[in-house]
Amino acid sequence: MTSSTPIEDKIRQKLTVSLSPITLQIHNDSDKHAHHKAMEGVTSKETHFRLFITSAEFAGKPQLARHRMVNALLKEELEREGGIHALQLRTLSPEEEEKPNKKVEEGVVG
Fold this sequence. Notes:
Blueprint: H1 6-19, E1 23-28, E2 48-54, H2 63-73, H3 75-79, E3 86-92, H4 94-105
Parallel strand pairs: 2-3
Antiparallel strand pairs: 1-2
Pfam family, one: BolA
Family: Belongs to the BolA/IbaG family.
Protein name: BolA protein
């Protein structure tokens, strides 16, 4: 059986194997961008993604290094014709993901 979301499936598989994420949210926003001029003639329904990733692999690394890690993992999908056109990343270490939750528990919001 062929998947209706092969690029999303590949993203999930590669990030899961390499980064062992605690949190991995993949949002396919392609439908919001299908009318853009750059998308004319593109038949793929998987071109624009937002990723939220929490991984211990990101601990101690600046955002740029984290984004480079993800981009390197998804290099094939980013370079392939009809592949990923836009990729928005939010990368956190487990400690960074914990901070907002701790503030809420302590009654501090903002």
